[in-house]
Structure formats: structure tokens, C-alpha cells
């Protein structure tokens, strides 16, 4: 029953949402909105071409291998449970496969990231929360097909998870991903200062109201005009619902799409 829900019902619902929001965005009189709408429709209708399909299947095969792992690693808790400061409160031992299954983007959302990176053609992607590297692999695959170089910078606080991700990137042959290990609170400022020009951002860790707001504002100076910023788990808590409403209504966002689990914004740099 749980397998049916996870493997069929949820993906069906998520794809329906992508198609509905995709149709709305694709009808707008704005090229950036149409590009995002087309990407949603592509992911919602699974309308990927053969070269895209092949690369995504490679990542899914790697996901299956990681999901089956029974070895463990130590995870410092920097996340929402640690509050806005995200202090390194306690360390828990995690089974790699359990962690990968619980925390990685499911295939539908990962394919949406892929379609967005294909559509937006960013030079630089930023991810907060690598986990075992599934979403970043999808971004790297899209950048490879875009054919213009491009790099993914992904931040992860748990060295054990980062090591699993690094091994996955190596197995998959992705040399265009750079993992920065350490709490976002300590690494993000330097990453933003050293890598201006993020055209695609996925904020997927430390799902706390204040932390999410602060991370977006730290990243903002390094965003390109028209950058796509994806926020995960926007309905996970009251605080996350509040920060999503605040972000979606912010004048710096030209468009905001509520996909219930995820929020997708198109950023417009304020004039002057
Ligand atoms: C939901 S998982 C990311 C999943 C990944 N984006 C994907 O879709 O494949 C969140 C990750 O963020 C990391 N994380 C959470 N809060 C953090 C923080 N404050 N600093 C650094 N890493 C953090 C966790 O260790 C975890 O690996």
C-alpha cells in the first residue's frame, strides 16, 4: 500500500501539479515565465528526448544502488530541528540507504530541476543540501547536455553524506560538481562571494523560517537577473508556509509558482 502511494499516486499528483502550473506559466506574456512553464510541462508530461532520458536513467540507476546501501555515517544535525541558528547540536548515526530514500528529491521533482536547468541554461547552479547527490546529479546532467560548460556548487554539512555524494558523482562521471562541506551558516558567505552569477538555485536544507529567509537574502547578490530559485518543503511547517508566502509576495520575485511541496520563483534584480 505504501509502495503504491509512493511510486504511483504521489508522482501522478506531482505531475498533475506540474502540468497545471506549467500551462498557467506558459500562457504568460513573459519569456522567462514561458521557459519555466515549458519546463514544468516537460517534466509533468515526461516529454524528455532520448539523450535526456539516457542521462536521467543513469542517475536513477545510481540512486537505486545508494538506496540499497546498509553501511552507516554520522550526521551532525544542522537542520530545522536545530533552529534558525542551526547549531551543531547532536550527531546521529544514519544508514546510507535509509537516508538516501528519506531525504533525496523524488524522481518527479529531480526531473523538474533537470528540465529547468535545460530551459534556463545557467552557467552556475547552487544547491543548499547535497544529501547523497541525487538532485545535483540531475542538474549536472542538464548542464552537460546544455553543452556550455557550467558548474554545480552544492553545500552539505554532513561530511559522511558529502563523501557518499562525491563517490556517486565519480561513478556517474560528473566532473562539473563542486561539493563544499560544512554548515551553510559557515560556508555560504564565501561561496556567494566567490561565485557570482547563479542562474539556478535549489534551497533544500535547514527548513526553518528565519534560516530560509536569511539564506535567500545572502544568495540574492549573486543571482543573475531572471534566475530560477526553488525552495523545497514550503508546506513542511507553519514557519515554512509563512516564509514561502513572504518570498512569493516579495517584489524581487517576478513570478512565484506554488507546487505545494516546492515553490519556484523567478528573480528580477531591482532597477538602480
Ligand atoms: C533534504 S536533504 C537534500 C536532498 C538533496 N537536495 C536532493 O534532492 O538530492 C537536506 C541536506 O541538507 C543538509 N543540511 C541541512 N541543514 C544544513 C545546514 N544548516 N548546513 C549544511 N547542511 C545542512 C543535510 O545534512 C541533508 O543532507
Q: What is the secondary structure topology, with strand pairs?
A:
Blueprint: H1 2-26, H2 31-45, H3 50-67, E1 72-76, E2 91-95, H4 96-103, H5 107-120, E3 124-128, H6 134-146, E4 151-156, H7 159-172, E5 177-181, H8 184-194, E6 198-203, H9 209-219, E7 223-231, H10 238-249, E8 253-258, E9 263-267
The structure holds S-adenosylmethionine (SAM).
S-adenosylmethionine binds at residues 75, 78-79, 86, 103-105, 127, 129, 131, 134-135, 155-158, 161, 183-185, 204-206.
List its salient traits.
9 strands, Rossmann fold, two-stranded antiparallel ribbon, binds S-adenosylmethionine, 52% helix, 10 helices, seven-stranded mixed sheet, alpha/beta, 272 residues, single chain
Describe it:
It is built from ten helices and nine strands. The protein is of the alpha/beta class and 272 residues long. The chain has a single domain, classed as Vaccinia Virus protein VP39 (Rossmann fold, 3-Layer(aba) Sandwich), CATH 3.40.50. The chain has a seven-stranded mixed sheet with strand order 5-4-3-6-7-9-8, sandwiched between helices. A two-stranded antiparallel sheet has the order 1-2. Helix 7 links the parallel strand 4 and strand 5 (177-181). Helix 1 (2-26) packs antiparallel against helix 2 (31-45), helix 3 (50-67) packs across helix 4 and helix 3 (50-67) crosses helix 7 (159-172). The radius of gyration is 17 Å and the shape is globular. The site of S-adenosylmethionine has 23 residues, from helix 6, strand 4 and helix 8.
Amino acid at each position: 500500500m505504501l509502495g503504491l502511494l509512493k511510486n504511483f499516486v504521489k508522482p501522478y499528483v506531482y505531475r498533475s501539479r506540474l502540468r497545471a502550473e506549467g500551462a498557467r506559466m506558459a500562457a504568460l506574456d513573459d519569456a522567462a515565465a514561458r521557459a519555466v512553464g515549458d519546463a514544468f510541462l516537460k517534466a509533468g508530461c515526461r516529454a524528455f528526448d532520448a539523450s535526456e532520458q539516457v542521462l536521467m536513467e543513469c542517475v536513477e540507476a545510481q540512486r537505486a544502488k545508494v538506496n540499497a546501501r546498509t553501511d552507516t555515517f554520522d550526521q551532525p544535525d544542522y537542520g530545522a530541528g536545530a533552529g534558525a541558528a542551526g547549531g551543531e547540536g547532536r550527531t546521529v548515526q544514519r544508514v546510507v540507504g535509509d537516508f538516501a530514500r528519506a531525504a533525496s528529491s523524488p524522481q518527479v521533482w529531480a526531473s523538474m530541476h533537470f528540465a529547468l536547468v535545460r530551459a534556463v541554461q545557467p552557467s552556475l547552479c547552487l544547491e543548499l543540501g547535497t544529501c547523497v547527490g541525487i538532485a545535483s546529479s540531475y542538474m549536472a546532467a542538464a548542464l552537460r547536455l546544455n553543452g556550455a560548460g557550467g558548474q554545480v556548487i552544492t553545500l552539505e554539512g554532513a561530511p559522511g553524506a558529502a563523501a557518499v555524494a562525491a563517490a556517486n558523482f565519480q561513478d556517474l562521471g560528473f566532473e562539473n560538481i563542486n561539493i563544499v562541506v560544512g554548515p551553510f551558516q559557515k560556508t555560504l558567505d564565501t561561496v556567494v562571494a566567490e561565485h557570482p552569477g547563479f542562474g539556478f538555485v535549489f534551497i533544500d536544507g535547514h527548513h526553518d523560517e528565519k534560516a530560509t529567509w536569511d539564506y535567500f537574502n545572502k544568495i540574492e547578490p549573486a543571482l543573475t537577473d531572471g534566475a530560477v530559485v526553488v525552495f523545497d518543503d514550503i508546506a513542511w511547517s507553519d514557519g515554512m508556509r509563512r516564509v514561502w508566502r513572504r518570498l512569493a509576495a516579495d517584489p524581487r520575485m517576478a513570478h512565484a509558482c506554488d507546487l505545494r511541496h516546492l515553490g519556484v520563483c523567478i528573480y528580477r534584480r531591482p532597477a538602480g
